[in-house]
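Database export, one record per block. Field names are fixed; values are copied verbatim from the stored entry.
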Amino acid sequence: MRYRAVISYFGERYVGWQRQLNGLSVQEVLETALEKTFGVPTGATASGRTDAGVHAEGQVVHFDADTSIPTDKIPFAVNTELPSDVSMLSCEVVDDDFNARFSAKRKTYRYSLYLSKHPRPMLEPTHEHIVVPLDLHAMKEAAKFVEGEHDFKCFEASGSVVKSTVRTVYNVQIECAPLEVTTASQTFAETGILTPHFDESKAFDCEIKISVTGNGFLYNMVRIIAGTLVYVGLHKLTPEDVEKIIETGDRKMAGKTLPARGLCLIKVVY
């Protein structure tokens, strides 16, 4: 019988989803837990690879198993065999022709960063820290140029071998939320810093989430898109520059690849 499961993991100590010779992968950890649960070697196929250090809230996998364990109890059984940084959130029976990778229609990744003079230890494992303000209005304008079907080779890291670099980005959403102030008694929400009068051209002391939904992504594509939008926020690039970067396909014109810790696979739609 074929099962589809949603997996969440904190990727800091893993070399990525896929099994590697140079370290521990999420796939290895999950397949080990499945084997212990079902008593036989059990392979797991994911919706796609996540790189070293990247997290997931909604990674989808499929596996085949012959078990008497009720479907709704499988996550409980598997989680007893998993480390605390990997968890199976749900499980359901699917058709035998379902494939977590090839049946996927769209995915959403989120890149998280925070703007603050000083590091926030609770955010550091999952966010990129920026110490100067960003122009959110300009970033949102630039994000519009990323949406649509384009040749995204300008947002592809070297070392990738794919037949086509054309992808469709359905939506790029940039959200902002206040950070707590340094005083013990107030938060920025209480002081009104993010009221309708909030100046998006000089956003600071806030958390920013850049969510990108597409039909597929190139190697490091979302991290480079996020890095390029940050360059726009820093006024190193204009929104119109992003359109030119995509048209020329020149990776050197785009922003830097932001660190893996800020990236998380949020959702896969079938």
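Remark 1: The first helix runs from residue 26 to 38.
Remark 2: Helices lie at 26-38, 74-79, 136-146, 188-191, 221-233, 239-248.
End of record.
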